[in-house]
Amino acid sequence: MLARRPTRRSRTRRSTARDPAEDLRAIAFALERSGEGSYRVQAFRQAADTVAGLGATALAAHLAAGTLTHVPGIGAVTAACVAESIAGQEPSYLRRISAPEPTALRAELRGDCHSHTSWSDGSHSVEEMAVAAMELGHEYLAVTDHSPRLTIARGLSAVRLAEQLDVIGAVNRVLGRRMRVLAGIEVDILADGTLDQAGDLLDRLDVVVASVHSGLREASPRMTRRMLRAVRDPRVNILGHCTGRLRSERGNRPESAFDAEAVFAACAEHQVAVEINSRPERLDPPSRLLKVAVDAGCLFSIDSDAHAPGQLDWLDNGCARAERAGVPTDRIVNSWPVGRLLRWSRRLR
Predict the structure, then answer these.
(1) Kindly report the CA angle at 30 between 115 and 322, in degrees rounded to 5?
(2) How does pLDDT run across 299-337, given as a tens digit for each residue?
(3) DSSP class of residue 310?
(4) What are phi and psi of 52, to 5 degrees?
(5) What is the rounded CA–CA span in Å between residue 349 and residue 338?
(6) How, if at all, do strands 180-188 and 140-143 pair?
(7) Phi–psi pair at 211, nearest 5 degrees
(8) What is the pLDDT of residues 115-168, one digit of tens each?
(9) Where along the chain do its domains lie?
(10) For the stretch 206-242, what's the b/e string if a residue is b when 16 or more beta carbons lie within 10 angstroms of its beta carbon?
């Protein structure tokens, strides 16, 4: 059920014996991390599956005959990568994809508290995301798909969320002690500050990330009241991407206006972690607000907000920002062992 995913170490491993399918998956992972289009990522993943299905004998025969590109799903670029891999060389395509230098703080993180799967607007299954996280060295990964009001992202109804809980349980039984998938949600903070999911279901979850996805241009007093009500809800663990800003080639979305001192003071009082979102187009909160949260005594969660396996490796973005802002490591909840994390997240349920 669980397919193997590449580790960071697989990008630099050099050996006389290489697995061409694993090298192709490593390229797909690295492309995903660097923000390449999904069509290119999928081409390498499809080629990896095709190569794995051929078997060593058939693969060698195609290479000898020069007919590998005749196999559906394998093109000239992926065929060249396979040839290099079979020859014991790291594919040149893989060498060209740069990986960020890990920060010192990155080594302290044990998991990720915000990720998405194909149950909402992610591209891969719970199983695939779990294996990718495990191969990156995570001890746990919270699956936090969207809540029902966010229809554009296929938010989970109460029925679908309950079904997902069963799937997460099944994945954890397969993983055993190797890694833990935490049941979670990224729940919308509605216009009145209430949460967009049934309370009894929220009580069953390990991690609740609460985020604003609508009405982002509200006046500051109204947005502040909205966020304060959510932060004071005992089910909320993490305040997600608090300003809602976006900065990308497709355009920018400005920050939402709110009283940061009041909201972060409430986060500190109620032990709600402020998310340091690692998505390149978010990097939320901005540096000036991150320093306000540090001074307020807040807890933090450095999250990838990943929607695909390669994006799980974005945590370095958030770690670099946390280091610059002087965030104490012990106040970063996903630097904690899973037992401590769960005692904190479930303390009021």
Answers:
(1) 55
(2) 999 999 999 999 999 999 999 999 999 999 999 999 999
(3) G
(4) -60, -35
(5) 17
(6) parallel
(7) -135, 150
(8) 999 999 999 999 999 999 999 999 999 999 999 999 999 999 999 999 999 999
(9) 10-96, 105-345
(10) bbbbbbbbeebebeeeebbbbbbbbbebebbbbbbbb
Q: How far is CA 138 from CA 21, 271, 319, 334, in A?
A: 23, 24, 15, 10
pTM score, whole prediction: 0.84
Q: Whole-angstrom distance between the N-terminal and C-terminal Cα of the chain? A: 33
Within 10 angstroms of residue 339's Cβ, the number of other Cβ atoms is: 8
Tell me the H-state helices in the chain. 20-33, 38-54, 56-65, 76-86, 92-96, 126-135, 158-175, 199-202, 220-231, 260-270, 287-296, 315-325, 338-345
CA angle 127, 131, 133 (to 5 degrees): 115
Closest C-alpha among 32, 69, 27 to residue 44: 27
- Rounded to a whole number of angstroms, the CA Rg of the chain reads 21
DSSP designation for 71:
S
**67, 51 contact by CB (below 8 A):** no
CATH 3.20.20.140 holds for 105-345: yes
CATH class entry, domain 10-96 = mainly alpha
